[in-house]
Amino acid sequence: xxxxxIAETSVTIDDVVYVIDTGRIKEKSxxxxxxxxxxxxxxxxxxxxxxxxxRAGRCQPGVCYHLYSKLKAVSLADFQVPxxxxxxxxELCLQVKMLDPSSKIEEFLKKTLDPxxxxxxxxxxxxxxxxxxxxxxxxxxxxxxxxGSLPVxxxxxxxxxxxxxxxxxxxxxxxxxxxxxxxxxxxxxLPNEKKRAAAAKAELASLYGGHxxxxxxxxxxxxxxSARERG
Length: 231
What we know:
This protein folds into 3 domains: about 5-80, Rossmann fold, CATH 3.40.50; about 85-165, Four Helix Bundle (Hemerythrin (Met), subunit A) (Up-down Bundle), CATH 1.20.120; about 190-230, no CATH class. The chain has 10 helices and 4 strands. The protein has helices spanning about 45-55, 70-75, 90-100, 105-110, 120-130, 140-150, 155-165, 170-180, 190-205, 215-230, and strands spanning about 20, 25-30, 35-45, 65. The strands form 2 sheets. Strands 1-4 form a two-stranded parallel ribbon. A two-stranded antiparallel ribbon has the order 2-3. Helix 3 (about 90-100) packs across helix 6 (about 140-150), helix 7 (about 155-165) runs antiparallel to helix 8 and helix 8 (about 170-180) crosses helix 10. It is globular. This is RNA helicase. Keywords: ATP-binding, Helicase, Hydrolase, Nucleotide-binding. Its EC number is 3.6.4.13.
């Protein structure tokens, strides 16, 4: 069984007696000073290593092989960095104002167990101001209340509301789903394969008269849906 860290907890398979732990994890990271999010491969924590080890030997004797040294195991952090400290928090800030409109977001978040750095909060507020969710004095606008009513990122919410006004909700929903999941296109490793993949992506986008990644995603989904309907 080959699995990501999704199998670290709450998964018990009776006949698993061996676990091989690479000690690595892919997680999203956010740099508030460059305002850039990345998907990075990093070392797991001691807590995660313990959970992975616990997948073997639950129903019968088992063994876990950790593919890193004892020195590395000792140097691992006790726990992973909390998501609030390594992710953009626009959605969280919007929810804070919806729950307590009179509060100041920075003061509110400073009371959390692991408060984000001030720069992360400032970046989030700037985004919410830019899309019209907040007024200049950091008050929740009527449009902000509408954005917060959808369980997605505020930027995605704004796209969906404008799509309703412009009568193009169906492709916008496709983009919203794609934005909140992994890239539907694979990136080959070989140079020749990369060129072929780029050409195929451009051909898909051209079906709707453009060159953008968004048009390629919509075209790919529509082609898949048509093929599925044809059986």
